[in-house]
Amino acid sequence: MRHTGQPGLAARVARIAMALAISMAVGMTGACGSEPETPSTATNQPTASEEKSANSGKQSAEPSEQPTNSATVVPLHVKGAKLLDEQNHPRQLRGVSTHGIAWFPQYVNAELFGNLKREWGINTVRLAMYTGEEGGYTTNGNKEELRKLVHQGVDAAIKQDLYVIVDWHTLSDNNPLTSVDAAKRFFDEMSHDYAGKPNVIYEICNEPNGTTTWAQVKQYAEQIIPVIRANDKNALILVGTTNWCQNIGEAEADPITGAGNLMYTMHFYAAEHHEELRNAMVSAVENGFPVFVSEFGLTQASGDGAIDTASAQVWLNAMDEHDISYVIWNLSNKNEGSALFVTGETRNPQTSDLSAEAEWYRGYLKQHATEANR
Fold it and tell me: What is the DSSP letter of 26?
């Protein structure tokens, strides 16, 4: 999601209030967005953008079965464009992303994750930790509390037998090389603590943008990936692509080599992105290049505005047809179209708590659950 604006005084007051709550209960991390004016209302926050994920090889997976989105967590590996289990059966991940966890920590809990697994049929949660924004990990955020909140989210997902994406949410910092040393330390800790846990997936840079080149992203990735591999040689790693994760062709033309189990992220927002971007995604996958849609929404790329369900239907049908995993933006009650909730409920949401985007997505997942597990 492309974010606009920086949080002001109200956001700073909210962060102080949140810090008091965190000291009693939870830690703090960041994601696609800025801080709410109160713990239950978000304004003036960054918005959504787009990412692609892929791996270095282009071999054919030749799966023996149709894909499954089963919530049972098993080790995964990448072959060609496919995400496979240990029996080389295709796996498709379908999930939800938090908003910036520094601003919406209340949505990081096992009860909510369990509800979404049970009632929606998700098998994946993405923990978006902003880095460069107000309260971000590499700015003036509380690093210790943010790490605690990431751990809390990972542990909650593991408890519910879900996959969990640890997202280093670069956005306003544009170029991930800006904070490469901090990223090394962060991913070293996380991959050490969760080594061997098949649940945990590492998204090492959210949305490189601005003048950032693929060569720079690649230079960053080639420093972060060995840090993770030193602790966990098999973990799935997602690498962001340039222009808010829309230039998948650049990565396809010059992939990262020698690392294994890599996918490249692509992001789209259905009300803004249509056939041209979708065709690029499909073309890459049909060429054997591994793409993971780690963030999408039904609105404009700002994360706001009306939802476009007709466009979203075409997108999700295409991703299901090509076994592409996807994660929707965002777990919050922020006053914007891409927020999944309209009330302050954070643990056991009912239909009355859901936004229009959430109701559509829940309905889609239920309707297509049988297809995904065929």
Answer: -
Quote the pLDDT of residue 43.
36
158-190: string of b/e by CB count within 10 Å (b at 16+)? bebebbbbbbbbbbbbbbbbbbeeebbebbeeb
**Does pLDDT of 173 surpass 50?**
yes
Q: Would you tell me which CATH number, out of the four given (3.20.20.80, 3.40.50.1980, 2.60.40.10, 3.40.50.2000), belongs to the domain 9-372?
A: 3.20.20.80
Confidence (pLDDT) at 72: 85
Report pLDDT digits (tens) over 63-115.
434 555 555 899 999 999 999 999 999 999 999 999 999 999 999 999 999 99
Give the pLDDT score at 370: 57
Q: Can you read off the two tokens belonging to residue 85?
A: 């289990």
| Alpha carbon distance 117, 341 (integer Å) | 16
Choose the catalytic residue: 50, 51, 203, 207. Answer: 207
**Three-state DSSP class for residue 112:** helix
Mean pLDDT, rounded, of the chain: 86
State which H helix or E strand residue 126 sits in.
Answer: strand 124-130
Q: Which of 295, 336, 345, 357 is catalytic?
A: 295
Q: What is the pTM of this model?
A: 0.85
- Determine contact, residues 203/165, Cβ cutoff 8 Å: yes
The Cα-based distances of 294 to 26, 109, 274, 313 in angstroms read: 25, 20, 17, 17
Which residues is 165 bridged to in the sheet? Answer: 126, 201
Distance (Å, whole) CA 239 – CA 217: 8
Structure tokens at 78: 């990448």
Residue 203 has pLDDT above 90, yes or no: yes
pLDDT computed for residue 67 by the predictor: 55
Active site residue 207: yes
pLDDT at residue 226 greater than cutoff 60: yes
Q: Is 86 part of the annotated catalytic residue set? A: no
Give the pLDDT confidence score for residue 31 in this predicted structure: 33
Where do the structural domains in the chain lie, given as residue ranges?
9-372
In 10 A of CB 249, how many CB atoms?
A: 15
